[in-house]
Amino acid sequence: MLKFVSRRLLSSLIILIVISATVFIIFNYLPFDPARLACGKHCTPEIVSGNRHRLGLDVSWWMQWWEYLKGIFVGRTYGQGAAMFTCPAPAFGYSFNQHACVSTILASALPVTVSLAIGAFIMWMFLGVGLGVISARFRNTWIDRASNIFVLVGTSLPTFISGLLILLFIVLKFNLISPLDLGQWHSPLTAPWEWFTSFFWPWLSLALIYAATYTRFTRSNVIETSSEDFIRTARAKGVSERKVLWKHTLRPALAPILTIAGLDFAGLLGGAIITEQIFQLPGLGRLTLQAALQDYDLPIIVSTTILAATFVVVANLIVDLAYAFLDPRIRVK
Amino acid sequence: MSAHNYLEVKKLNVSFPTEDGLVAATSDLTFSLARGETLAIVGESGSGKSVSSLAIMGLHNRARTNISGEVILNLPTGSLELLSSSEDTVRDLRGKEMAMIFQDPMSSLHPYFSVGAQIAEAWLLHNKGNKSDGLKRAIEMLELVGIPLPVERVHDFPHQFSGGMRQRVMIAMALVNNPSLLIADEPTTALDVTVQAQILKLLRDMQKEFNMAIILITHDLGVVAEFADRVNVMYAGKNVEEAPVRDLYYKPAHPYTLGLLRSIPRVDQIDTHRLQTIPGQPPSLINLPMGCAFAPRCPYKELVPNNLCTTKNPELSNFADNHLTRCHLTHDQIESVR
Ligand SMILES: Nc1ncnc2c1ncn2[C@@H]1O[C@H](COP(=O)(O)OP(=O)(O)OP(=O)(O)O)[C@@H](O)[C@H]1O
Ligand code: SF4
Ligand SMILES: [Mg+2]
Quick one: which of A221, B29, B75, B94 has the fewest CB in 10 Å? Predict the structure, then answer.
């Protein structure tokens, strides 16, 4: 087991290094020049090259990459003399657009995205897995048929439709959140109720879509597992139906769902671009969108991209370990 | 059917409603079994062997299966008809009074639990005790079925055992509560030949030890000859012949059994009876044909007058002492075609 864990840790680390390098290579060859974009109306070649130096773009991509990685551990200093300033570790670069260290910007966006992801995740897991198990257990009854309609609607609605419908016809119509308050960040530590109400509808609109997929997946997995030989063995021993479901069926049926759930959750941590946009939540998704489409803010784009990839890699790692914990066949190999 | 019989199955019918129609997997199945006795059930794939034994165990989903007839257990406390008993009553008997082992020991053991935990569970379901008592029982059972180092191996998972060892684990689990009836559904089909022999020997030893009745389902007529007291031959969901092993081999009474016996190669028979498999296919179990289900493949149906074979269903009747068959041919006709 220890060997398994350390091997998986090592491979995750390697993957992260490769991904971050890839990001730098890609942005190095993209056909826009941040040094030029950061240059105002009266632009001269001198200003552009000065910018390029300040942005750290006058060296090869792998030097930029190295500086970036180093900054994460030891912080990073920009400029010289009186104009000198430092982003403390972990530094992810400096946004000349927003005149702030990227780490500061990320630190304000991250709690929003994490709140959105966690709440939506809990909601859809309860809803999706619960409904899936129930409709498998009561297969071909009205409960199953009702949940099937939910699955059909949920999987065919795109997020932006469900989000917009909820925003227009519930939240704004019944004045549940005043339009001015939309997108206001409330910390769960200081204002838990405001935090909850401001996130409830975004959670719901995200969760409905995921829950539908999870309902279908859970239902088919539970039904498939119920027809396994080892379930018949459990019944032959005299195990009660309730225990057949809870003890013998659910663990193997839900293990593969865990894998997908981990990755979906990680994907959301990278920023739920559409939902954040609709509910005007200042999270990573909106940050990335704005940096990419409006400001061409390279340091931010690089960092949010790497951050999103990191979430996925870490989730992968956790899921693999959890799976090994659940399934002894993987553990021993 | 006398009262000293332990298990009596009477006119058992099992059918499944499907989109294509009603699948009559078992019809009119009748047999009985005494304590300590071994009955083999043979028949080609799809003849209803597994469906029938699952019905005896009460393992079909009652909502999705039509079952009629009688399955009677004569227990020390009195007779009990299982099909009309509550699910709870039958569940209580499962694993305690009657147990079952299956063809594929890999897929029949739960991959997520240690073999010890699975055997202990079977014991704890029907006995008072805690987990460590259960584990102690599991170790005893593993030892009994011949698993080396049972104290260490009790914590291992099914995938850490070989096929034969897994089947031993299944047997240990089935026998942990000392059942009076064991149904073994092709217990050796998935194993290689030497292991097959070991498992059969183990089953026989266990039978002596616990005085169990065994229903052995198999394709292998060689296994039947060696292991069983009586044989029940099934075709298209019906038992077409039932006889003590010797009688069935030397004086088969049903044309289907004749065909089966001719399909096994035997040195001393090569000259007289050429090796043959029975031509044709078993009938669809949806809308079974009128008359004898074997008629489309039967080489002797012309011997029966008035097309009786294709119009009237033959009843199970006495061919000789303890020897039943389901065929319109007369005793003499059978003797002459044999
Ligand atoms: N749940 C079910 N629904 C519909 N048909 C079924 C069901 N279970 C079994 N059958 C059908 O009943 C028939 C008898 O099946 P059964 O498994 O008893 O055969 P078998 O004699 O055990 O064959 P084998 O030697 O291959 O194990 C088959 O045609 C099978 O397709
Ligand atoms: S009843 Fe007729 S068709 Fe059926 S086995 Fe006997 S002879 Fe053959
Ligand atoms: Mg079978």
Answer: B75
The domain spans of chain B are 1-97+180-228, 111-178, 253-337
Dihedral angle sign, alpha carbons of residues A186, A188, A191, A195: positive
The ipTM (two decimal places) reads 0.90
- For the A106-332 domain, the top CATH level (class) is mainly alpha
Domain residue extents for chain A: 34-91, 106-332
Residues on chain B touching A251 (C-beta within 8 angstroms):
112
Sign of CA dihedral B140, B144, B149, B153: negative
CATH topology of domain B1-97+180-228: Rossmann fold (3.40.50)
Q: Strand pairing of B38-42 and B21-33?
A: unpaired
As beta bridge partners, residue A326 has none
Per the document, the length of chain A is 333
Please give the C-alpha separations between residue B108 and each of B43, B65, B167, in angstroms, as whole numbers. Answer: 23, 22, 9
pLDDT tens profile A232-251: 999 999 999 999 999 999 99
- Joined tokens for residue B286: 């949806």
Instruction: Give the pLDDT score at A178.
Output: 78
B95-114 confidence digits (pLDDT tens): 999 999 999 988 999 999 99
The residue of chain B nearest to residue A241, with distances taken between CA atoms, is B91
Asked whether the predicted pLDDT for residue B275 surpasses 50, the reply is no
CA angle B203, B207, B213 (to 5 degrees): 110
Using a CB-CB cut-off of 8 Å, the residues of chain B touching A136 are none
CA A207 from chain centre, in angstroms, equals 13
Peptide bond into B283 cis (omega under 30): no
* Tokens encoding B58: 């009460």
Of B49, B104, B220, B234, best ligand 1 pocket probe by most atoms within 8 Å of the beta carbon: B49
Return the higher-pLDDT residue of A326 and B149: B149
For residue B248, give both structure tokens. Answer: 């069935």
Q: Please give the angle made by the CA atoms of B41, B173 and B89, to the nearest 5 degrees.
A: 75
β-strands B181-185, B21-33 pairing: unpaired
Burial of B335 (0-12, 13-18, 19+ CB in 10 A): exposed
Amino acid in position B138: A
Q: What is the DSSP string of A123-188?
A: HHIIIIIHHHHHHHHTTTSHHHHHHHHHHHHHHHS-HHHHHHHHIIIIIITTTSS-TTTTT----T
